[in-house]
Specification:
The chain is mostly helical and 243 residues long. It is built from nine helices and no strands. It is found in: Lysosome membrane; Membrane. InterPro entries: Tetraspanin/Peripherin, Tetraspanin_animals, Tetraspanin_CS, Tetraspanin_EC2_sf.
Length: 243
């Protein structure tokens, strides 16, 4: 290619890099704002987006998750956008390194999720079960999130109904949550009839397996974008030496 063609190609890729990372930066700001909103006013968020409460995000603290993801996207978007605009080799290398670390972490998480599902269940049990015993029936937002999750997914607790044994709710009401039975009124000692629902972890795992194709496609798309972003940043980084 002629020098003019090379310069035109460089300029085009630079502009695309700026626009792409500007979109990432704005997305990060949006997620960060939503995360802060959920943290400050979780009840309003659940009323508006109640249908999302059946997802796995509602098992954990969605506000902190959104804040962390939003902050990471803000940093990556800034590094990529400003680094390309200013043609800064330092910022481009920082962008490349950040995306590479995230890519490796995602691959590692996927391997762990596939190979060590039992370990993931053990870790979640150690984290979530104590919260169910202490906060369910005490914290209104936490209780509402779990009520909607158990209703939508038709499940009980994280592993099963025994997660509520010796809990504040069971000690206070003498029964498990009504969502555990799939009926409106809570039934005292209904666990004796064997009509309690399965745990939410297994139910969510089944939903993930059912939609594995879609989830795999989304993951592959994200991985392709990350690889492309790293390739473009390296192209710009190397071309700066030739300018």
């Amino acid at each position: 290619l002629s020098a003019g063609a090379k310069m035109g190609c460089f300029t085009f890729i630079k502009v695309m890099m700026i626009l792409f990372n500007l979109a990432i930066f704005l997305s990060g700001g949006t997620l960060l704002g939503v995360g802060i909103w959920v943290k400050v006013d979780g009840e309003s968020f659940l009323k508006i987006f109640g249908a999302l409460s059946s997802s796995v995000l509602q098992v954990v603290n969605v506000s902190y998750l959104l804040i962390v993801i939003g902050a990471i996207l803000l940093v990556i978007g800034f590094l990529g956008c400003y680094g390309a605009q200013k043609e800064s080799k330092c910022l481009l290398m920082m962008f490349f390194s950040a995306v590479l670390i995230i890519f490796i972490a995602e691959v590692a998480a996927a391997v762990v999720a596939l190979v060590f599902t039992g370990l993931a269940e053990t870790l979640l049990t150690g984290l979530v079960t104590p919260l169910l015993k202490e906060k369910y029936g005490v914290n209104d937002t936490f209780t509402h999130i779990w009520n909607v999750t158990m209703t939508e997914v038709r499940c009980c607790g994280l592993n099963n109904y025994t997660d509520f044994n010796n809990s504040y709710f069971y000690e206070t009401h003498g029964s498990y949550p009504r969502q555990c039975f799939g009926v409106s009124p809570p039934l005292a000692h209904s666990h004796l009839c064997g009509c309690l629902l399965q745990g939410c972890f297994n139910q969510i795992l089944e939903e993930i397996k059912t939609n594995a194709g879609v989830a795999g496609g989304v993951a592959a798309g994200i991985a392709a974008l990350e690889i492309a972003a790293m390739a473009v940043s390296m192209y710009l980084y190397c071309r700066l030496d030739e300018k």
